Amino acid sequence: MKILVTGGLGYIGSHTVVELQNEGFDVVIVDNLSNSEISVLDRIEAITGKKPAFENCDVCNTEALRNCFETHGKIDAVIHFAAYKAVGESVENSLNYYKNNVGGMISLLEVMKTCGTEHLVFSSSCTVYGQPDVLPVTELSPLKKAESPYGNTKAMCEDIIRDAIISYKSFSANLLRYFNPIGAHPSALIGELPKGIPNNLLPFVTQTAVGLRKELSVFGDDYNTPDGSCIRDYIYVVDLAKAHVCALKRMINIAQNGNCEVFNVGTGNGVSVLEILNEFMKANGVNVPYKIVGRRSGDIEKVWADTTKVNEVLGWKAQTPFIEVLQSAWRWEKKIRG
Length: 338
Ligand code: UFG
What we know:
- The longest helix is centred in the first third of the chain and has 22 residues, at 94-115.
- The model has no long low-confidence stretch (mean pLDDT 96).
- Helix 1 (11-22) packs parallel to helix 2 (39-48) and helix 3 runs parallel beside helix 5 (94-115).
- This protein is of the alpha/beta class.
- The chain has 11 helices and 13 strands.
- Bound molecules: uridine-5'-diphosphate-4-deoxy-4-fluoro-alpha-D-galactose (UFG).
């Protein structure tokens, strides 16, 4: 069975390609290398013993994308990761985000339609819930107005997929709403490669621990949480990758054309910034200097997932102990710093 993975050399994409190949799927990666390295292809081969097919292509280029589909014969399903993902950048350059993320989504659906590929797994985000009124957040919780153009592109893409399914009854899709992905493959051959100063918490923590950054700024200790810092649901990237395989198998096996299902992909546990920092230092025996600073604008106070649906319907559960996740992140940081 052949799966086309857009953004398959990126952080979550590369881990998902590994899990797909481990499960015997043939993978075609489509990636324009805008936020990834070609060396990841060899690293995937080093982990799985198989080099996936690769096309250097921008999903927004519909004709080039169609070519990728036609070159590789019948594509049974697509997992769509390729998108920009920096919240702050999306505020500064919103049109680029709409053009790339929404434009790429439309281009992909058009090509899938003409090439007869009916199954799609979409990389969505818990950002669509904003600050939920009730926690944990379920898939039926109301969606809130997005805090950023980035968040808006995720909500818009979800809507576009739903409408495409209504128009072209043969499609089916699973929308996976990720919570906060962290960690790296246990082999330390693939992981997150942030460009410049990291926006996200864990890469900043590991870069501070390794001495690349002087200290971590903890954005606010005056939130309405037990220790005053924000709470998130941190999901191990390998567990998250496996959720894609479960979503794909369900779609292909049940062949529910016309169906669109949404799943929260998280652990179900909320962890605060100060907790993650202390756990990281304890798990790895390293010091991470930090200071408390003011709140970061646009931050949600607390969010974590109700995972009942993904556990019961997809038969998937986050499994990796938190300590191992934090150790994998540290192993990866040390490895890339040589
Ligand atoms: N934080 C710090 N210091 C830092 C970086 C982050 O204290 O240097 C805090 C943030 O204030 C927040 C928590 O760590 O409380 C997590 O922040 P991240 O930036 O790692 O993650 P977010 O929850 O803000 O955002 C992430 C992704 C978004 C996505 C969102 C919801 O970056 O792309 O989850 O899915 F939209």
